[in-house]
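Task card 7
Instruction: Convert sequence to structure tokens.
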Amino acid sequence: MDAPSFNSVLDSAEVQAFATGFPTTVAQLVVTLLLLAVGVIFYVWLTPWKEIALVRQGNTAAALALAGILVGLAVPLAVSLSVSTSIKDIVLWGVAAVVLQLLAFRVVDMILTGLPQRIRDGEISAAVVLVGAKLATALILAAALTG
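Output:
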């Protein structure tokens, strides 16, 4: 039995499927990462404390809170990506997920009063509670996105 030629490997169904699907995968990834970046930028802009400045000052509580935002937005966006069939779907459901999650984050921030100052003061326990609340809302939203 002869080894397959290079051209026959390139013409195989698997390689052709990869060549067709890979650019789509990259485009979907880029769109989803842009939605994540926009969501984080909006959240940082809306919060009463300035996470980036606090993180740069070495505030661990602020770093935890910001990490919670990243993961909290990424979870529903990942689910949106997994259930979408086109870039248009990803944008539509991704924007919906980001808006709903940002609204949920604001509600959590209002319910857990006093946390902004505690995070500014570097209280790790306050940041852990905030991260837990934000991840819980992310998981619930992700489940809602799957129908």
